[in-house]
Write a structure and sequence with these properties.
This is glutamate--tRNA ligase. GO terms for molecular function: ATP binding; glutamate-tRNA ligase activity. There is one protein chain. This protein has about 725 residues and is of the alpha/beta class. The chain folds into four domains: about 5-160, Up-down Bundle (Glutathione S-transferase Yfyf (Class Pi), Chain A, domain 2), CATH 1.20.1050.130; about 185-410, HUPs (Rossmann fold, 3-Layer(aba) Sandwich); about 420-490 and about 610-690, Glutamyl-tRNA Synthetase, domain 2 (Orthogonal Bundle), CATH 1.10.1160.10; about 500-540 and about 540-595, Beta Barrel (Ribosomal Protein L25, Chain P). The protein is built from 21 helices and 31 strands. The longest helix has 20 residues, at about 145-160. It is elongated, with a radius of gyration of 31 Å.
Length: about 725
C-alpha cells in the first residue's frame, strides 16, 4: 500500500488525511516544498485525484450526504459557509452521525471540509447551531480526526525542531563597525500611548544587542509634540517594559536638550542649510511633490534668524512660520526635498510646561539627540528606510560623527489595530474597557489575554532581525505561548450550565461523597495536587450526554469506565437525565468518549460559578489601511460568554493565573467578577486554526467562481480574486 504524501502547509486537506486514516494508510509530510508541493498517492498526483482514489477504498459511501444549498470549499465566502452550516445543523437535529449509526465516510468528509475552512471553524464556535457543535466537538475526540490532527501537529513540531532556534542567546545579528564595550543603542517611543506589540521588537532587539556587545541601552522619550503626549504614558511605558523584563541603563528625554537642538537649528540657518517659510501646509506638500522650490527658499540668513526667533517666542507673526532644511527640492528621495524641521506648537508640554513655544520635528531631533547621547547604532524599522539618507545628511551637515543604521521589520498582525490614534478612539468610545483590554494589541492587553512574558520574548526573538515586511497571522505567537504554558498550567474542570445533565452513578461502594487528591498536571507532579469529589450524583454537559448511546461504554475522566444504562430525553431531543453503571475494570483505550464531569454541588461540596469568555478580533478587515473609516470595519460582537460551574479550588486563583479547563482549553483568570458575582476567565488561543479564526463576517469577501456544482464536498477550492470595494 503506497503512502499519501502531503505538502506541510498551515491548513492541509483534512478530508484526504481523514480518508487515509480511515483505511490505515500512512501520511508522509513534505516539509520542504510549502504551498508549491504536490499531493501524491502512489502514481496518483494532485489533491482532487488523490481524494477520488482514496474514496474508492472506503465503505459507507452508499449513505448519502445531506443536500447542501451551495458548494463548500476552503475558499467559500462567509455567507456560503453560514448557509451550509445551518443546513448541517438541521440535518443533525435527530441524528448522531452523518454516516449512520457510527462515524464513517460522510462524517470524515464533512469534518475534513469544515476543518479546511477557517470561516467554518470560527462559526462552529459561535452559539446558535447546537446540533452541529455537539457533533463537531464529539467527532474531534474520535480516533480518525484525532489521528489526522495529531499527524499534522507532529509534522509541524518536527519541522520546527529541525530549524535553527533563534533565542535570546543565539540571534544571528552582527552590528557593523561595533566594538565590544562601546556600543550604545536606544529605544525611543513617543509618550502618546501605551506600548503595543508593534513596538516590542525594537525594545527587545535593542536590549539583546546591548547585552551582546556589553554596551548600553538607553530609554529615550521622544517628547517633541506636546499636543499628543502625556506623563501618564511615560509611566505606563516604563511599567510595560518592566512587565516584560526589559531593563535599561538610563532614561532620557528629547526635551532635555531643547536648548541645544534650537542652537543647532540656528547653526543650520547660519550655514545656509535651513530657511524659514510661511507657505501654507497643503501648498508645501504640493510643492514638494511637484519638486517646486518655496518662494522663501533664498531669504537671507539675517531674515531667517529674525523669523526663527519670532517663531520660538510664539509671536503672532512667528506662529505663521516654520523652519525647513535646505537640502534639494528636486531630490529623487522625497524626504530630502526641503523637509519642515521646526514649527510652532501651542499648549503646555508635560515636562517643560510653557517654556518653549516651538518644537523640533523628529527628523531633526533624532540625529542630534543620538549624537548627544553617544548612540553608536540606531536600530530603525525599515518603514523609515527612505529617511536614512536624510538622517545621514543632518549628521554630516552638523559635523557629527557617523552613526550606523541597522534596519529591521516591524511586527504587524492581521485583524489588528496598531495606530495609536485609532486605539485611543476605541478607548474613548468605550468599545473596549481600557488600554489593558484583552482584545487590545497593547502589551497590557495581550498580557491579560494570556500571553506570557517568556512566550512573547521567544516569539519576537524567533523573528530575529528579519527585514522582510509581512503581515503575520496570530497562530504563530499563540503556538509559541502554548509551549510555555502547557507544561505548567494546572488542570481543572468546568461544566457548561446550559441544559447540563444530572447523572446518577450506580456501583459505588459507598453512598457518601469521597474527596480524593489528584495531580493538577498528570505530566508534571511539581504543579501540585487538587481535591476531587467522587459522588453518586454528577453533572455533565448536554453536548456530551447527547452523544451517548444506550448501554454504550464511556470513560469518566480520572475515574474510570461506565456503561450508560439509562438515558431520558425531552421531545426537543435534549437529555434530561442519565444513569451510568461503573465498570472500573474496563479499558479506557477502547472507549471513544472520554468526558469531564463534576460531583453535583452540595452545601458540603459546592462548585464555583464562573464565566468563560472567548474574544473575537476588534476589526473584521485583515489589513487596516490608514484611510479606512474605522467604524465601518468594527466587529459588532467581540465577546462570547459561557456560564459554567467549576471545581471549588479555582476560587483560590488570582489575576493572571493561567490554567487549563480540560477539553475546553487554556484560560487566564481575569481577577474580576461579572455582575452576577461569577469569576471571569478569558480563553487563551493555542495556535490551532479554530482558536485564531475570525468569528464574525469578514469586511472583505472573495468573488464567487461560476460553474461550481451544488452539493460538492471538500473539493479543492478555486483560486479567487478579491473584488471588494475599498473601505472608505
Amino acid at each position: 500500500m503506497p503512502d499519501v504524501v502531503l505538502p506541510l502547509v498551515q491548513t492541509p486537506p483534512f478530508v484526504i488525511i481523514a480518508l487515509a486514516a480511515l483505511q490505515g494508510i500512512p501520511v508522509i509530510w513534505d516539509t520542504q516544498s510549502g504551498e508549491q508541493g504536490q499531493t501524491t498517492y502512489g502514481d496518483v498526483v494532485g489533491a482532487e485525484n488523490v481524494r477520488a482514489e482514496l474514496e474508492k477504498g472506503v465503505d459507507g459511501k452508499e449513505v448519502p450526504l445531506p443536500p447542501l444549498p451551495t458548494l463548500l470549499t476552503s475558499t467559500s465566502s462567509f455567507q456560503d459557509v453560514s448557509a451550509v452550516l445551518d443546513a448541517l445543523d438541521d440535518y443533525l437535529a435527530y441524528r448522531t452521525y452523518f454516516a449512520g449509526p457510527k462515524f464513517g465516510f460522510g462524517d470524515a468528509t464533512i469534518w475534513g471540509t469544515i476543518r479546511g475552512n477557517n470561516s467554518a471553524i470560527g462559526s462552529i464556535k459561535k452559539p446558535g447551531r447546537p446540533h452541529l457543535q455537539r457533533w463537531f466537538n464529539h467527532v474531534e475526540t474520535l480516533d480518525v480526526p484525532k489521528a489526522a490532527l495529531e499527524s499534522h501537529r507532529q509534522a509541524k513540531s518536527e519541522m520546527e525542531k529541525g530549524k535553527k532556534t533563534k533565542r535570546l542567546e543565539s540571534i544571528d545579528v552582527v552590528l557593523p563597525n561595533a566594538v565590544k564595550g562601546k556600543v550604545v543603542v536606544r529605544f525611543a517611543p513617543e509618550p502618546s500611548g501605551y506600548l503595543h506589540i508593534g513596538h516590542l521588537k525594537a525594545a527587545i532587539l535593542n536590549r539583546y544587542l546591548a547585552d551582546q556587545y556589553q554596551g548600553k541601552f538607553i530609554l529615550r522619550f521622544d517628547d517633541t509634540n506636546p499636543v499628543k503626549e502625556e506623563g501618564e504614558f511615560e509611566e505606563a511605558i516604563q511599567e510595560d517594559l518592566k512587565m516584560i523584563e526589559i531593563s535599561f541603563d538610563k532614561i532620557v528625554h528629547t526635551s532635555d536638550h531643547f536648548d541645544k537642538i534650537q542652537a543647532y537649528a540656528e547653526q543650520l540657518i547660519k550655514q545656509g542649510d535651513a530657511f524659514m517659510d510661511d507657505t501654507e501646509g497643503e501648498t508645501v506638500k504640493e510643492q514638494r511633490r511637484a519638486m517646486i522650490p518655496s518662494n522663501n527658499r533664498n531669504l537671507s540668513v539675517e531674515e531667517n534668524l529674525i523669523k526663527f526667533k519670532e517663531m520660538c517666542e510664539g509671536t503672532e507673526e512667528g506662529k505663521r512660520w516654520s523652519l525647513r532644511a535646505k537640502i534639494d527640492y528636486q531630490h529623487k528621495n522625497g524626504t530630502l526635498r526641503d523637509p519642515v524641521i521646526y514649527r510652532y506648537v501651542g499648549g503646555s508640554h508635560h515636562v517643560t510646561g510653557t517654556k518653549y513655544k516651538a518644537y523640533p520635528m523628529y527628523d531633526l531631533a533624532c540625529p542630534i539627540i543620538d549624537h548627544l547621547d553617544g548612540v553608536t547604532h540606531a536600530l530603525r524599522a525599515n518603514e523609515y528606510w527612505a529617511r536614512h539618507e536624510q538622517y545621514q545628511w543632518f549628521l554630516k551637515t552638523l559635523g557629527f560623527a557617523n552613526i550606523e543604521i541597522f534596519d529591521f521589520s516591524r511586527v504587524d498582525f492581521v485583524y489588528t489595530v496598531l495606530s495609536k490614534r485609532k486605539l485611543k478612539y476605541l478607548v474613548e468610545k468605550n468599545v473596549v474597557k481600557g488600554w489593558d483590554d484583552p482584545r487590545f494589541p497593547t502589551v497590557r492587553g495581550i498580557r491579560s489575554r494570556g500571553m506570557t512574558v517568556q512566550g512573547l520574548k521567544n516569539y519576537i526573538l524567533g523573528q530575529g532581525a528579519s527585514q522582510q515586511a509581512v503581515q503575520l497571522e496570530w497562530d504563530g505567537i499563540w503556538t509559541v505561548n502554548k509551549k510555555v504554558i502547557d507544561p505548567v498550567a494546572p488542570r481543572y474542570w468546568a461544566i457548561a450550565e446550559d441544559r447540563m445533565v444530572i447523572v446518577n452513578v450506580i456501583g459505588r461502594e459507598t453512598g457518601e461523597p469521597e474527596v480524593v487528591s489528584k495531580p493538577l498536571h498528570k505530566k508534571n507532579p511539581e504543579v501540585g495536587e487538587k481535591k476531587m469529589v467522587f459522588a453518586s450524583k454528577l453533572i455533565m454537559e448536554q453536548e456530551d450526554a447527547k452523544t451517548f448511546g444506550e448501554n454504550e461504554e464511556i470513560t469518566a475522566m480520572d475515574w474510570g469506565n461506565a456503561f450508560v444504562t439509562s438515558k431520558t430525553t425531552t421531545p426537543s431531543g435534549d437529555v434530561s437525565s442519565l444513569t451510568i453503571t461503573l465498570h472500573l475494570a474496563g479499558d479506557f483505550k477502547k472507549t471513544t468518549k472520554k468526558v469531564t464531569w463534576l460531583a453535583a454541588p452540595t452545601d458540603a461540596n459546592p462548585l464555583v460559578p464562573v464565566v468563560l469568555i472567548e474574544y473575537d478580533y476588534l476589526i473584521t478587515k485583515k489589513k487596516l489601511e490608514e484611510d479606512d473609516f474605522l467604524p465601518e470595519v468594527l466587529n459588532t460582537k467581540t465577546e462570547y460568554r459561557t456560564y459554567a460551574l467549576a471545581s471549588k479550588e479555582v476560587e483560590g486563583l488570582k489575576k493572571w493565573d493561567i490554567i487549563q479547563f480540560e477539553r475546553k482549553g487554556f484560560y487566564i483568570c481575569q481577577g474580576t467578577k461579572d455582575n452576577q458575582g461569577r469569576m471571569e476567565f478569558g480563553f487563551i488561543p493555542d495556535g490551532r486554526a479554530a482558536t485564531v479564526a475570525l468569528k464574525a463576517e469578514p469586511a472583505k469577501e472573495k468573488t464567487k467562481v461560476p460553474g461550481t456544482a451544488k452539493g460538492s464536498w471538500g473539493k479543492p477550492g478555486p483560486k479567487t480574486i478579491s473584488n471588494a470595494a475599498a473601505v472608505p
